[in-house]
Amino acid sequence: MLVFTRRRGEVIMIGDGIEVQVLRVGRDGARLGIVAPANVAVHRQEVYDQIRCANRAAANPVADLASLSRRLLQQP
Amino acid sequence: MMQGFTTSTTPIVHPPLQGPITATSVKPAHVVTFPAGLPGFEECRSFVLLATDDDTPLHYLTALDGPDASFLVIDPRNVQPGYKCELSDTDARRLGATPTTTLVWLALVTIESGGMVTANLRAPVVINPTLMIGHQVIPHQGTYSVRHILVQGE
After folding, report:
1. How close B21 gets to chain A, by Cα (Å)?
2. Mutate which of B34, B38, B61, B91 to test chain A, going by most A C-beta atoms within 10 A?
3. Does the residue A68 lie in any domain?
4. Residue range B10-151 in CATH 2.30.290.10
5. Would the ipTM clear 0.85, i.e. be above it?
6. What is the least distance, in Å, from the CA of A74 to any CA of chain B?
7. Which structural domain, as residue segments, surrounds residue A31?
8. B50 and B60 in contact (C-beta within 8 Å)?
9. Which of chain B's residues have a Cβ under 8 Å away from the Cβ of A39?
10. What are the tens digits of pLDDT across the range A3-25?
């Protein structure tokens, strides 16, 4: 892993068009600003992991669709 | 609370298929390209939105490549009246969407152990039916639940 020391306002450049700027450093965390091309997704890792887990849980369901649809329609 | 079946997804829904679902068994015009796949299924780039035989608001979103991946999906407005999820400029660009594009919104449905059924309203799948490009968006400021309960367990 590359490790840099950066002060407030300083930037790290990654490849073509990705910039990570340190906006604020506090006791509990650092606030970062990210500039990235449209085809590069930027997410908090824990949020992305949560969606990945949810997708895996949703994949390839074994469902009796008729009964499931009936139950859906019966909801208040 | 169901509001009746919506027809907003109808134009791109493929009729029910019997037998194996492959890239050659679906009509090419119905193939939706997901340039980034889906989180957890990044290798799946081609999907089809399939109708089911049953009278149901549910469809299948089924991968045509990569590992086996088929999802039950529902229009989020069908389960959460007033559902509104803002597309970021980046997501709109990714989908090739302009402010006037009518997009297809889908929530992935999970049948959980114990029979509870939930829908992921936090990270909807959005499809631009004009370009047949899809993307699962993860808004940075999301207020909806990843496990919005549709049916309580038994």
Report:
1. 13
2. B38
3. no
4. yes
5. yes
6. 8
7. 1-59
8. yes
9. 35, 94
10. 999 999 999 999 999 999 999 99
Nearest CA in chain A to B59: A65
Position B5 scores a pLDDT of: 39
CB contact under 8 A, B68 and A60: yes
Model confidence over B53-94: pLDDT tens digits? 777 889 999 999 999 999 999 999 989 989 988 888 889 999
How far is C-alpha B92 from the chain's CA centre?
16
Evaluate whether residue A30 is within a structural domain. yes
- Per-residue confidence at B121, pLDDT binned at 50, 70, 90? very high
Residue in B with minimal Cα distance to A41: B90
Is residue A69 one of the residues assigned to a domain?
no
User: pLDDT of B7-45, one tens digit each?
Assistant: 455 578 888 877 777 777 888 889 999 999 999 999 999
CB contact burial B103-123 (16+ within 10 A = b; e otherwise):
bbbbbbbbbeeeeebbbbbbb
Summary mean pLDDT of chain B: 87
- pTM, two decimals, is 0.87
User: Is residue A66, in this structure, part of any structural domain at all?
Assistant: no
Q: Does B136 touch chain A (CB under 8 A)?
A: yes
SS3 state of residue B46: strand
Q: In total, how many domains does chain A have?
A: 1
CB contact under 8 A, B110 and A69: no
3-state helix, strand, coil in chain A (%, to 5): 30, 25, 45
Q: Is the dihedral of CA A74, B4, B10, B12 positive or negative?
A: negative
